[in-house]
Amino acid sequence: MNAPDLNVRFTLRGHRGNVFCLALSGDGKTLVTGSKDSKIRVWNTGTGTGKLEKTLEGSKSSIIGIALSADGKIAVSGNQTNNTLFWDVEGGKESKQHPPGTGHNGTINGVAFAPDDSFAMTVADDRKVIKWDPVKAKQRTVMNKHEAPALAVAISPDGKRAVSTGSDSSARIWEIETGEQLHVMKPECDSVMTAAWSPDGKLIATGGNEENIRLWDPETGELSKAIPTGVQTINSLAFSPDGQWLALGGTDNALSLWNVENPALPPAMSDPSLGDQRLLFKGHTNHINAVAWSKDGKTIITGSKDETCRVWNVD
User: Fold this and answer.
1) CA dist., res. 300 & res. 64, Å (int)
2) CATH superfamily of this structure's domain 6-314
3) With contact defined as beta carbons under 8 Å apart, do 69 and 24 qualify?
4) Cα–Cα distances in Å, from 285 out to 17, 112, 278?
5) pTM for the whole structure
6) What are phi and psi of 202, to 5 degrees?
7) Which of 29, 32, 34 is nearest to 48 (CA)?
8) What does the pLDDT look like over 14-67, one tens digit per residue?
9) Which of 59, 114, 166, 237 has the fewest C-beta atoms lying within 10 Å of its C-beta?
């Protein structure tokens, strides 16, 4: 992919509160968003206007984490009152839920779906990483090695491993089938807010409250590269489908893209002869909490504390 050029296709409005999380279907036509207003909104992003299709209600508190099956039929969400909720997106209703004591005992901060939709994973303030059967809404594996709240989870492209992050200054790689912890990675920050696998599974990117994107070798857990960004806290990262670019959302209110092989450096550290590979796109008026990149590479979606989502064309 050449250097992408972005423009806003449309802005999604409707939430009455911070948009904490979002997830996109495999075909890029269905978007689910979760907010401080306790509602999940389902949008048709395959249209030219971003039509609101449904509003899913039933959560009694803010939706902090959400994931959507590739076929767009099932959503899994987590909220501040410790509920893991399973949703029939087509039917527009909650199908099953797990109240406190039967799943997590703490705010559920992150949710991810396996690439083949066969399972989902959640992480929470109770430090647990849980694997779920999303159809039966039953726990399959519980991984419990974090020493402080777990904040995010991402599943490898082959569905065999997961990485979870936490406010214990760590990111941890797991073998999903056995629940074995394979590696502990220690970025230089108090809270590791986000993690993403590259499409080929050969890199993990993490970000947190230390201004650096860190790239890790998932086979060894060793640091491959640190990319200074100048963003005080990195809330969300997403790889482009070809793995050449990383999209970043954080506390500077802007969407930025970084070239993985030749990343930009802050001006004081940059070498103009190498060129500046960072691309910066403004529009949100508050922190960006969530970023997703469509599988066809043509769309990036951001969710913000300004109560909106923006759908960006990638040219």
Assistant:
1) 20
2) YVTN repeat-like/Quinoprotein amine dehydrogenase (2.130.10.10)
3) no
4) 14, 27, 20
5) 0.94
6) -95, -5
7) 29
8) 999 999 999 999 999 999 999 999 999 999 998 778 999 999 999 999 999 999
9) 114
